[in-house]
Amino acid sequence: MKMFTSSNRSVRMFVLGLSMAAFVQGPAMADVTAIAGAGATFPYPVYAKWAEAYAAKTGVKLNYQSIGSGGGIKQIVAKTVDFGASDAPLKPAALKKDGLMQFPTVMGGVVPVVNIPSVKAGELKLSPTVLANIYLGKISKWNDPAIADLNPGMKLPATAITVVHRSDGSGTTWIFTNYLSKVSAEWKNEVGNEKSVAWPAGVGGKGNEGVASYVSRIKGSIGYVEYAYALQNKMAHAKLQNAAGRFVDPDNNSFQAAAASADWAHADGFYMVLTDQPGDQSWPITGATFILVHTTQEKPATGSAVLRFFDWAYANGDKMASDLDYVPMPDSVVKLVEQAWTRQVLGPDGKTVYNSGM
Amino acid sequence: MLTRPERSASARPVVAEETGTSTSHLRRAGLRDKLFRGSTQVSAATVFLLVLAIVLSLAFGASLAFRKFGFGFFVSTDWNPVTEQFGAAAPIYGTLVTSIIAMLIGIPLSFGIALFITELAPAWLKRPIGTAVELLAAIPSIIYGMWGLFIFAPWFAELQPVIQEKLGSIPVIGSLFEGPPMGIGIFTAGLILAIMVVPFITAVMRDVFALVPTELRESAYGLGATTWEVVWNVVLPYTKVGVIGGVMLGLGRALGETMAVTFVIGNAQRISTSLFMPGNTISSALANEFTEAVGDTYTSSLLALGLILFMITFIVLAIARLLLGRVGGRV
């Protein structure tokens, strides 16, 4: 029983997960029976699903706390978890400073949703400028000429627009404000791109569910939620005009189209934001979510177990991700990630921890 | 006559024996007493140390924000994580205004309930009303928040235009009720808080009203006083201290309430004249933003908010003490 002789942590994990440890198979994995991660809430459902399937197959349990990207970054920097998760990519300089590397796992889209009694899902068309001006508070009525011009023939009420945004800091807000900063100079200068910003207008709901419930309860409101929430709550989304000038609906195809045109190979440290991508079909507010690990693994066995989990998820988790309305990473990107693991994630001896002990 | 010396004679050895055992008993009791006293002292010191540790860690965490923004932190309404400019004016305003609304509605309501239970209700009705009030206190705050958002807010959104129509034309009061009818905002938060503080204030008021000696009450009735006169001139003066204590307990709860407020206040870092507009309180700002706060200034500003809430609560308690001291002195 290697388990008892290895590090304290493994013993602790053994005690914590006694029942699960009983199912450990294979001597190579015997010393790591649980890996711990923390961070973004957006990918939590798919990580949980993957973890369940992975534990059933290998006995290695994943404890993921969806405490938010900020918390995830803090915890991985403090080394209280084995990996962190963030919806917003860290800049290469920030990664270097804390000795981290990041890689994308799945993609998703952020969708504007509206509550106008006469308007059904996908009927309303919005342009980037109009969306930015609504969130800037410059367009305050639904029958504003700027909106009417985009929607000829549609009967728009004279009701006031209530802007709904996230009240808590979130990766969703980061992606949304990143998009608005790209399409509106005024937004970029006055508000900017962060996980929470000084909103010029509107009310804040806590979490996707908070925004979803405000939008469905306040007549004349507009909000932004993750695609899955818009689907599950049957909310009326708006069509958005993309960089190519086409009005597109949010769905897996348009998210994948946005991802396809991204040049991951030249993205230093996988710093890649998928908003406002070219392509006729591209949904303009698409984003990937990221995992953070230390480049120097003090406990190579644990580091190796983390990478093995995501390796398995890339290979076997696409279906599960799609079922939950996430978009899996293209194989070409996965290959790049695996190369980066081999090069960058090293044990104390300077050797890669990826594939070690397999 | 015979029994007396007999009794005293037989009593003496017993006394001697008792003193004999009681010295060792007393010694043991003394030791136990010392241990007991020591342990209570440790418990008391723990409370003191805990408070001190919390204040110190808050102050330490907040020091960066205070150094950076100075006094401006208290008066600035900026709250911009992008440019890292932070000011606490909006959440302080929201905290105070929601608590004031809660008190304005909660105190008269609790007073009425407590009076009805102790003075007016027939005996068979006292129990059910008392239990209902206690049940209100037992409901977790998130339930109030959900009820406020899902049930009350949509209904209130329908009512808001009516209020605006009736009051909108009055110069100053009208501006308090402007804005699109959303059903959520500062006023809704205050109202939900009022419902939440009612059981606390009521429970204390009912208990202290019940302490008024029956003689006092009945003498007043005997002199021909009406119920109102008895309450106003006998019951209230007698129970002032307790009533103020109950109110302060409620105020303390209103100031610190987090989840229920976060649901219905609208979470906007803004000060607006209208009570129907969204705002923010200190505790809901903390609940919303702590998880994703990255950067030292941001985190420090949030801790500074926590320290300010601590100070507000401390000031409220101090005022309560002061009032209680004065009132107590007069009684």
Describe the protein's architecture and organization:
The complex is a heterodimer of chains A (358) and B (331). Chain A is built from 16 helices and 13 strands. By secondary structure, chain A is of the alpha/beta class. In chain A, a hairpin with a 5-residue loop joins strand 10 and strand 11. Chain A is elongated, with a radius of gyration of 22 Å. The model of chain A is unreliable at 1-7 and 9-30 (pLDDT under 50). With 331 residues, chain B is mostly helical. Chain B is 80% helix and 1% strand. Chain B is built from 12 helices and 2 strands. Chain B has helices at residues 3-69, 72-75, 89-120, 123-138, 141-167, 171-175, 186-210, 214-222, 227-256, 259-264, 282-289, 296-330, and strands at residues 79-80, 85-86. The A-B interface holds A 67-71, 73-74, 159-160, 162, 167-170, 191-199, 202-206, 210, 213-214, 217-220 and B 78-83, 149-150, 153-154, 157, 180, 182-185, 262-263, 266-269, 278, 284, 287-289, 291-294.
Helix and strand content put the structural class of chain A at alpha/beta
What would the average pLDDT of chain A be, to the nearest integer? Answer: 85
Largest sheet of chain A: 10 strands, mixed
Taking the alpha carbons of the first and last residues of chain A, their distance comes to 18 Å
The largest inter-chain interface, given as chain pair and residues per side, is:
A-B, 35 and 31 residues
Using the CA coordinates, give the radius of gyration of chain A: 22 Å
Low-confidence stretches of chain A: 1-7, 9-30
Helix amount of chain B, in percent?
A: over 70%
The order of strands across the largest sheet of chain B is 1-2
Given helix and strand content, the structural type of chain B is: mainly alpha
- Regions of chain B with pLDDT < 50 over 5+ consecutive residues? 1-16
Write the layout of secondary structure elements.
The complex is a heterodimer of chains A (358) and B (331).
Chain A (H helix, E strand, L loop, with lengths): L1 H4 L2 H9 L1 H4 L12 E6 L4 H15 L2 E5 L3 H9 L5 E4 L5 H7 L1 E16 L9 E2 L1 H9 L8 H6 L11 E5 L4 H13 L1 H6 L12 E3 L1 H11 L3 E6 H6 L3 E2 L1 E3 L5 E2 L3 H9 L25 E9 L5 H17 L1 H6 L3 E2 L2 H14 L14
Chain B lengths: L2 H67 L2 H4 L3 E2 L4 E2 L2 H32 L2 H16 L2 H27 L3 H5 L10 H25 L3 H9 L4 H30 L2 H6 L17 H8 L6 H35 L1
Helix pairs in contact in B: 1-12, 3-4, 3-7, 3-9, 4-7, 5-7, 7-9, 8-9, 9-12, 11-12
